[in-house]
Design brief:
heterodimer; A: Flavocytochrome C3, Chain A, domain 1; Methane Monooxygenase Hydroxylase, Chain G, domain 1; five-stranded mixed beta sheet; 16 helices; B: alpha+beta; Alpha-Beta Plaits; two-stranded antiparallel ribbon; 3 helices
């Protein structure tokens, strides 16, 4: 058997995995260096990733003449509360480059300025600092994708990553499978940029009817951790996977409404008390981030019925804001608002809501050039770990920084050689569920995995539950994964995904078990270790795989 | 299922915009009738891309029952 029997083999200089904001920006910038660039995307790049329906805000902007703050000072302020977990140098790369990437986006014709030529600045996640630019970015993704095509990037759509290929300690490309045809492809690359998004499909939605409960998320559910799992399997170092991204949300459809409601509403309990006024000292252990504070408040009330009262805050200004946010980033909110009747009538009962790993804080470690610990591999956007939550700005910045770096690296590299055996084994692994006549449907298995993660990792973590979770996940991997059955290429995608979800779930539970303290409540709250322990744990927890075993280290390079 | 994307075939002109752009691959393509079909409504995450892309206004994304109850939509 030869490689040609594995399927189509594409050879490229720079492979970009994922065509969201980070991936498109990376591909665009890499092309400026005259290299051959390929994007492999599970979706279609025009509407791929978390910015599929547009963006309304651009966070982490700093310029003394614009908002009275230097990039250095903003990076420092944004690091408050996550000391030790994140690399201050990465935060600085983001704040320093924010305005540069905004200029790139402006060149594509996205309207980032008001009609009078100024930016609309508002406070964001640092109290008192106007570091968010609000803009009409409904077409941001459409314009980026068009530019990617104009620059003649090779675009392979509806093709998901299944594994990163390695040879002599280097990443030399990736394998993928087309989710509509089932075709297996091999991409050989001199440099690879992983921009596959966060790992958002770990927890369980308690209301939605199956299988809707698996997909109703605040983030794009197609970003389910394929990249996180693949990077770990290939041997890359990851950090902070114990933190679960939970925020206060209304139960119905998070993509439509949640984040808008929280800042302008009053969180009250059933007796009408304002909750934030009485949550006591545990809330002091979370940073000043308003969304995280509100989540902690909801978490700590344990059991009473809460409500978010919008009515006192509905006025022409908030109505205008609602229309703006909906029109530019969350268009489904407009339909919901029409169906509901009026903004003030939105009946919202907040609950703690978890999706998966806290993006940008937990994920694949990079240095300030975007390189991971594996030669030949870069990581960009929400798949990154060890940085602040940086949203669209971080995604665009890492693409902007890494595209040129990867291109320059590729120019100096010889044609990579693939390990035939590795490719053929992967093809066999991925396609196996297609051939089975009897077996378990992938979404049914995913439902079980996510129920286990919700019940035994969850917000109230305890050693006994975490151990049980690990035991169950290991059993599912050994006994149930080999029974997976896919009746179509689309189902094969779900079958491939659930294997990554199990891997990421295991990393999440193992890391949570290791961190014997509570930090960033409610993102990591150990019932058996309820206090923050700065002496031992003001550090990142790093994990990597070596010879099939997980290894951990407490502390990352920036902690030394 | 009567939640997720609903296609009004009276207005659909078979342009494939929904099929090409749906992030979650919820739509399939009926080659015989040359029109989209909703294969996986349960995998819809209510982003609204199909509605935005459909220039014929032939698609409406209907919220599921649990969301209707939560938001008081009878």
């Amino acid at each position: 058997m030869g490689l040609h029997e594995a399927g189509e083999v594409i050879s490229t200089d720079v492979l970009v995995i994922g065509g969201g904001l980070a991936g498109c920006m990376a591909a665009m910038k890499a092309r400026e260096h005259g290299v051959d660039v390929t994007i492999m995307d599970k979706e279609a790049i025009r509407r791929s990733g978390d910015a599929a329906t547009g963006m309304d805000h651009f966070p982490n902007v700093a310029h003394p003449k614009l908002n009275g703050i230097t990039p250095e000072e903003l990076a420092r302020r944004r690091g408050i509360g996550t000391e030790g977990l994140v690399d201050p140098d990465l935060n600085l790369v983001i704040t320093k480059n924010a305005l540069h990437v905004l200029a790139e986006v402006e060149k594509l014709g996205v309207r980032t300025k008001e009609e009078d030529g100024t930016y609309k600045l508002q406070s964001g996640r640092v109290i008192g600092v106007h570091d968010f630019i609000w803009y009409r970015g409904a077409d941001l993704k459409i314009k980026l994708a068009a530019e990617v095509r104009r620059r003649k990037v090779r675009v392979i759509e509806r093709t998901m990553l299944t594994r990163l290929l390695t040879s002599e300690g280097r990443v030399v490309g990736a394998t993928g499978v087309n989710i509509r045809t089932g075709e297996f492809i091999v991409v050989k690359a001199k440099a690879t940029i992983l921009a596959s998004g966060g790992a958002h499909r770990l927890y369980w939605h308690p209301y939605g009817a199956f299988p809707s409960n698996l997909f109703i998320l605040y983030q794009d559910p197609q970003s389910c951790g394929d990249g996180t799992a693949a990077a770990c399997r290939a041997g890359a170092k990851l950090a902070n996977l114990e933190f679960a991204y939970g925020h206060t949300a209304t139960m119905g459809l998070p993509r439509g409404i949640t984040m808008f409601v929280v800042p302008w509403s009053e969180l009250r309990n059933w007796e009408g008390e304002k909750i934030l006024d009485r949550v006591g000292d545990l809330v002091e252990e979370v940073p000043s981030d308003p969304i995280l504070r509100t989540s902690a408040a909801v978490f700590l009330t344990k059991g009473e019925r809460l409500s978010i009262d919008m009515a006192p805050h509905v006025n022409p200004a908030t109505r205008a804001c609602w229309s703006f946010v909906s029109a530019n980033e969350r268009p489904y909110g407009l339909r919901l608002a029409r169906l509901i009747g009026d903004l003030k009538d939105i009946p919202t009962e907040p609950r703690m809501w978890a999706s998966g790993i806290v993006r940008s804080i937990g994920g694949v470690m990079i240095d300030e050039t975007g390189r991971t610990s594996l030669p030949g591999l870069y990581a960009a956007g929400d798949v990154v770990g060890g940085s602040m939550m940086s949203g669209a700005t971080g995604a665009l910045v890492w693409g902007y920084v890494e595209g040129p770096n990867a291109a320059k690296e590729a120019l100096g590299r010889p044609e990579p050689r693939l390990q035939e055996e590795q490719v053929l084994r992967e093809k066999e692994r991925v396609l196996r569920p297609l051939g089975r006549e009897k077996g378990i449907k992938p979404l049914e298995l995913e439902n079980t995995v996510r129920k286990i993660v919700t019940d035994y990792v969850g917000f109230q973590k305890h050693e006994s539950k975490l151990n049980y979770c690990l035991q169950q996940l290991s059993w599912l991997r050994d006994e149930f994964v080999p029974q997976l059955r896919a009746d179509s290429p689309h189902e094969l995608m779900r079958a491939t995904e659930v294997q990554s979800i199990i891997d990421v779930g295991e990393l999440h539970a193992r890391s949570a078990l290791m961190r014997t303290e509570s930090r960033l409540v409610p993102w990591h709250y150990r019932v058996d270790h309820p206090r923050r322990d700065d002496e031992h744990w003001e550090k990142a927890l790093v994990v990597w795989q070596h010879d099939g075993e997980f290894e951990f280290s407490v502390g990352a390079p920036w902690n030394e | 299922m009567d939640y997720g994307p609903q296609i009004d075939y009276e207005y659909c002109n078979g342009c494939r915009a929904c099929y090409r752009n749906c992030p979650s691959d919820v739509f399939g393509w009926d080659e015989e009738k040359n029109r989209p079909v909703v294969n996986y409504p349960g995998e819809c995450h209510y982003c609204g891309v199909c509605e935005l892309e459909c220039l014929q206004l032939a698609i409406e994304v209907v919220p599921p029952v649990h969301a209707r109850v939560e938001y008081g939509i009878g």
